[in-house]
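User: tokens in, sequence out, please.
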């Protein structure tokens, strides 16, 4: 794979992330780069390209990470420290780097440093899996830290990991809406079994798919998430592609327990090639558009805010704006189906 106008030798890095801003030639090369990203960034180049394209290099401040690590101590939130200490010992335990190597200490260092950087987020389960997989790919804990910061602060929606988890919960509602229109048979089957798909897919998004994909597939997915401008939108494409590729098997599950077991333990164990998964995900790009995802997410978050406000008020009433939200969702569904056929002309009376 030859990267357009890139020099990765001798530690030098290049303006890949600015290609799209250089007129027609730049846009053409950016499209070429995106196509190459979909086919998989070579392992030798991956860490450097992730740092460049994710914005991690732009966030990086010399000496800042070392200061966070050295700070330690009394200002740390005890609950955050306790949760991190519990989670690091059950993260990637099958990997020797974390089972017997220095992985546990480095993971603790990265997570504590980020909690000190961003006290509003602190620590949320799912971040441990993201940081651990970054440590496997990036040359240093500091490099992993800055890409983790990019994930949380730039690539995923604001509020994804804050204490309310409002944005991440909203995304599950958005995904469910897409399932109902893109995979109507599966949607009806899940409804018939009274299955809340959101409860099963929530961790997919929160962990950026670290808990359901093998490392090779995960890093191919992260190539796209970190190196294109539609990282969070691609998560919906990927989730829908996984469900679509497994739809026949899911339709054969006759009980809720069968569906739960299949999604939690067998979803990616069947004959799904990594290239096939990436192609199926990219094939949904015109169905799952970033502007539409953002509109649906904002509606879902607004409904959540109103519901929280009602609960705090201690009384029940129709959620303000619910009718408008339903109407907008129906209009979105109509847009996806396309224009309705024209009505037949009325008979002409003699």
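Assistant: Sequence out:
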């Amino acid at each position: 794979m030859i990267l357009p106008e890139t020099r990765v030798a001798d530690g030098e890095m290049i303006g890949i992330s600015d290609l799209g801003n250089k007129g027609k030639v730049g846009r053409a090369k950016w499209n070429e780069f995106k196509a190459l990203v979909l086919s998989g960034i070579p392992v030798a180049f991956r860490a450097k390209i992730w740092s460049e394209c994710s914005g991690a290099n732009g966030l990086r401040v010399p000496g800042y990470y070392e200061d966070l690590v050295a700070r330690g101590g009394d200002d740390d939130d005890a609950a955050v420290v306790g949760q991190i200490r519990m989670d690091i010992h059950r993260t990637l335990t099958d990997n020797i780097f974390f089972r017997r190597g220095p992985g546990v200490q480095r993971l603790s260092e990265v997570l504590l440093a980020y909690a000190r950087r961003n006290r509003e987020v602190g620590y949320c389960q799912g971040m441990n899996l993201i940081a651990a997989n970054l440590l496997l790919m990036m040359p240093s804990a500091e490099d992993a830290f800055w890409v983790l910061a990019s994930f949380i602060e730039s690539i995923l929606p604001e509020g994804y990991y804050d204490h309310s988890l409002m944005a991440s919960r909203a995304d599950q509602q958005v995904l469910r809406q897409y399932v109902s229109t893109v995979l109507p048979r599966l949607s009806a089957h899940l409804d018939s079994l009274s299955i809340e798909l959101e409860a099963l897919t929530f961790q997919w998004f929160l962990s950026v798919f670290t808990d359901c994909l093998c490392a090779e597939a995960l890093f191919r997915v992260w190539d796209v998430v970190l190196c294109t401008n539609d990282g969070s939108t691609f998560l919906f494409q990927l989730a829908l592609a996984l469900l679509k590729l497994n739809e026949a098997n899911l339709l054969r599950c006759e009980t809720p327990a069968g569906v739960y077991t299949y999604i939690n333990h067998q979803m990616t164990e069947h004959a799904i090639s990594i290239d096939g998964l990436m192609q199926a995900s990219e094939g949904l790009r015109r169905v799952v558009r970033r502007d539409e995802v953002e509109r649906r997410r904002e509606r879902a978050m607004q409904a959540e805010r109103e519901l929280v406000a009602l609960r705090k008020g201690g009384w029940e009433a129709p959620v303000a704006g619910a009718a408008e939200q339903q109407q907008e969702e129906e209009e979105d569904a109509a847009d996806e189906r396309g224009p309705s056929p024209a009505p037949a002309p009325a008979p002409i009376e003699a």
